Amino acid sequence: MHAWAGAVESAWRDLVVGFRVLRRSPSILFSALAVLSLTMGASMALVSLSDRLLLKPLPIEHPDRLFQLVRPAAQGGLTQDSFPGSLIAQLEGATKGVGTILTVGFPNDEFVSFGSGAFLPEPARLQSLDVKGFALLGVQPALGRGFEAGDSEPGAEPVAILSHEYWQRRFGGAPDVLGTLLRRRDKIVRIVGVLPGGCPELDLGSSPDAWLPAGRGQGGRLLVVLRENTGPLQLEAALRPAWEEYLRSQPPTQTRQENARLARMRLQAVDASKGLRSDIRNRFTTPLAALTVGALLLLLTGCGNSGLLLAALHDRRRGEIAIRMALGASRWRLVRQVVVETTALPVIACLPGAMLAPLIAGMLVGLASDPDRPMRLAWQWDWRFAVMAAACCGIAAAVSAALPAWRLSGIQRQDAGHSRLSFRHRNHSGFQPAWLFIAVQAGLAVILLAGGGLLQTTWYNLERLNPGFDQQRLSIAELQWAREGSRAYTNSVYRLLLARIAELPGVARVSLSGWSYFGGNSRRAAIVPEHPQGEGATEPAEFLSVAPGFFRTMGVRLMRGRDFSPADTEAAPLAAILNESATRLYFGNGLALGHRFSIFDPKQKIEVVGIVEDTKLNGLRGPAPPLVYLPFFQSEFRGTSDMPASIEIQSLPGARLDVPELTRVIRTAAPGLAVRRVRTQRDLVERSLLRERLLAVVAVALGLCALLLAGLGLSGAIAHSVASRQKEFGIRLALGATARHLVGGGILRALAPVGMGTLAGAIAALFLARFLKSMLYGIEPANPFVLGGAALVLLAASAVAALVPLTRTLRVKPAVALRQE
């Protein structure tokens, strides 16, 4: 017990001495604190986000019992999450005794209004959930009640439960929110409860503002809560008879090969302990892992920089430490003192680093988010973050203390009485570890600069890519029906809108589509030609409903055949226009014009009347997808009559679209039609590159920070060397050496460890760049120009960093230097 008390008292005395030393050097103190806080904050932020995406389970009891069901897609060998209501009813009966099925809808951004007065639309994100959902997940409402069994029955009063965040943001946390009416389209919903904060986030980054009960027979995704001692294989076996019965009940609308493929495939139960399958996880898992590695490399660079600063500080105390050794202090006791003193600084920096982490994480989420559909990732202070912070602090403390402790080992008793060591002793004893740290910093900087260069080039290549349509002078107005109406009514409103918008000043052309290019929407199905000639009879194609004039408005060339016309109405024969990829896929090299195909109903034949050039639809990577265009005013493939639509408006050269006037015209023509947003087509294309932008911006920032830290570390080491070698420089100048010769030799000496580190870093970058291959476009991982450029930038910056302190030798006077200690 006394030994522990003595050790604690000794450590406390060492800390007090260390703080006194640091207080006498405020520039070193604040520089090291700033470097460590920033690098630790960035590392904590990225590690925490990676943990959120990859490792962190939902905050519920027994998350390992959660599984999501996925089924084979109707076409193309893919899997899909959505299940029709008829199949859900069959599966619910099959899971009894194994687990409980919960139906979960997709988050949907809609326009809603509160109160019983005039409809004043405001955006809100709604999502449906099985009435048993909150109870099974262990979520109790903070206010009001949860869902009840009768809420999903036909004829029941529609109810909603608000999220805690939306309740605070929209209603200021007012308790009288219960009973408030929420209006969506023509439905009136009563708010009956408010959820507590920190609820399980089933859809990562897409937390809804309000939950609605999933109606009986409603389709959606399926989440299964397994019973104790039950596994996914038992669940799949229990569901197999119901799945096979469902397949037998479906009409054979596809090809014989496709029916055989579906018959062989089974339902799968995939792990949902971290939430439902998420597009955010699919898109950002690999990029975030790469950036996390980069942040940890930057942390090591910052710790090395801090170690160099602290080593320079302790070098001033060499005489003091040598005297203590001469008086009997053991080397282990002195090393322990230096370790305690130097680890105190990273521990102090951990607190501001932890405060910076949520700010940096918020900036990263903002870079990766569409401003109109922001990701909602609430920062959480929990034990997992505390462990990450402690790990970052431990790494920083270990690396920062290594160099001062190493250099202390070179001090001898005979150095007592000297505040600085002789040049010969310094060269022999302790200066080489500093060069090793500088070499490591240079290698890490090359790795980060090369990675940043590759990802920045990828972003640049994709931005320059031609998507196949005109991006200039194009504005997209996204519409959403606030009230339901018949298809005949909505079609008449759309025709009126096209006519009125065409009359606006500065409008050259206007058209209409089910959704816009790069709007993030997609609908796929396999078409079945009457006389297939291609190799992709079972492959799905994208479908898009467009109005007459769409191709001219978007600048898409018509290769053969005709465009849609006003005559393509509900009463006209069914028509379609294919792009070149769809033509090759389904009809080979033969002419597709005049050929017919079916989609769902084999008796309903659609004739190909035109072929247009290929365009990208929702992403710039990869080839253009096979795309089938259907007449907007004819196609029932659009879905319900109140489905959203997009108006494409091409402005005259030099003209600018008057958005307020456009909004007024739309609201005047159709009071039940709301304008979700108006954006340029170029903006939509750029938003498809959010992942690439995040990677490029953060990777380049990490590389530049590493370059700056490496330069500062080298400059500090050279400055310390120059200050401790004043007498040597004076002797050499007295013997005839020129200041220019001393500066040139100093630069070459400084660039030696940088060059070795650069070479090692370049070799490591060649190896690590292979892991970035899936994120690159238009550039190979081992691109010599990027790697060579990173090395040259580092060497040039190092030369400049070394030159600044070495110019002090030009001011050395031999007579003054020789009179120094």
Kindly describe this structure.
The protein is an alpha+beta fold. It has 4 domains: 172 residues, no CATH class; 209 residues, no CATH class; 167 residues, no CATH class; 189 residues, no CATH class. Helices cover 49% and strands 15% of the residues. The protein is built from 23 helices and 24 strands. Strands 15, 16, 17, 18, 19, 20, 21 and 22 form an 8-stranded mixed beta sheet that branches. It has a 6-stranded mixed beta barrel with strand order 4-5-10-7-9-8. Strands 1, 2, 3, 11 and 12 form a 5-stranded antiparallel beta sheet that branches. The radius of gyration is 34 Å and the shape is globular.
| Main sheet summary | 8 strands, mixed
Number of helices: 23
Taking pLDDT < 50 over at least 5 consecutive residues as the criterion, the unreliable ranges are: 419-431
Structural class: alpha+beta
Protein name: ABC transporter permease
GO molecular function, one term: transmembrane transporter activity
Domain ABC3 transporter permease C-terminal: 295-411, 702-811
Keywords: Cell membrane, Membrane, Transmembrane, Transmembrane helix
